[in-house]
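Please predict the structure of the following assembly.
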Amino acid sequence: MLAPWRSPLSSAIHRNRSKPHSRYFQLATVTTEGYPANRTVVFRGFLELEHYLNTLKIITDARSAKIKDLENQALAEVCWYFTKTREQFRIAGKLKLITATETNLELLQARKTTWHNLSDSARSQFAWPHPAQPAADQSAFEIDPLDPNLPLDNFYLLLLIPQKIDHLQLRSDPQQRCLYTLENNLSWSTEFVNP
Amino acid sequence: MLAPWRSPLSSAIHRNRSKPHSRYFQLATVTTEGYPANRTVVFRGFLELEHYLNTLKIITDARSAKIKDLENQALAEVCWYFTKTREQFRIAGKLKLITATETNLELLQARKTTWHNLSDSARSQFAWPHPAQPAADQSAFEIDPLDPNLPLDNFYLLLLIPQKIDHLQLRSDPQQRCLYTLENNLSWSTEFVNP
C-alpha cells in the first residue's frame, strides 16, 4: 500500500517538473568517525516491488566515500527542497545497497534495469578514474559508451527505505508541517505539527 | 585573510543571484542517537570579524531540534547546490552558537545586527508556538511586528566555521572538483581531484 506521504510528494514532484533540479536532493549520512556528511544525489524513482513499495532509488559508485559511511551506519536523512512550490520533505530511513552479488533476484533485476535506464554519459562515469584521487588527465574521462545490458561491478543501486517524513510547506499562511512516522514497521501515523 | 574557496563561492553566489533559493543550503548534523539529520536553512552572509573571516552565518531557534544535535556534536556539513551554474559546495566545519549570554562583545553585536536585518515576518517566527508540537490554532501565528533592536532570547546566531570544502562543477567537461583543507587551523591547502 502506498504510504500517506506518497501523495503530497508525488504532487510536489509533478508541480516542480519544469525544474530539472527538482529530481536532486541532499543525502546526509554519518562517517565512521561520527561526523555528518552531505551531498547532492539524483532521485531515480520509486522501487516498484511489493515489499519495497515506498522505497526510493539512488545510484552510487562502489568507490564513493558514502559506501564506507553506510557500511558503518546504514541510516540517512534526505532533505528534498522544491524551489517552485517552496516545500521541503525530510525523509529519514534505512539504506540498503544492491550490488552485483545480490541474492534477491527482484532486487538484482532492479539494479540491472536502473543501469539500463541511465544515459550513456551517466553510465560512463562508472568507468572514470577513481573519485577524489589526484586529478587524472582529461583523456581518462573520454569513455566509449558502455553496454546498457551489462552493469559495471562498481555500479550500486542504493535504496532508501523511509521510516519518518517531515513535510514543511513554506507557502501556506501559516506554514504547514506534517510528520509521518512508520509505527512497528507496519503502518504510518500522520500528525500535523507547528512549523 | 580570505580563504582560497571564497572567490569561487562568491562567484557562484553572484552568478546564481537571480534565484532566491540560491541563498538556501542543506545543513547536516548528527543527533544524540548518532543518526544523520538534514534540513534547509538560509545563508545569512559571512561574519565580518577579524578572527571569523570565513565563517558563515545561519540563524536558529533555541526550541529547534538541531540545538540538541550540536550540543552533543558541534560539527556539520553544509551541502550547497547552485541550480543555475550546476555546481556544489560541500562545507564541513565546526558549529558555534551565539546566544543572549555570549561574552564576546563582537559576537554578541553580530547576533543583534543579524536580528535587526531580518524581515518582520522572519522575526515573528521566533514568537510562534513551539516547533514540532501539535499544531496550534492559526491565531497563535498572528504576531505583531517585533522590536528590531531587541532580539528574543530564543533567537540564536549559528556560526559555521569551515574546515574542509569540496567544490564540484558539473558543467565542466570533464567535471572539475577541488578540495580545500584547513591545515593546523592555519592555512588552506588546495587539491584538484577526480569528480
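The mean pLDDT of chain A is 97. The radius of gyration of chain A is 18 Å.
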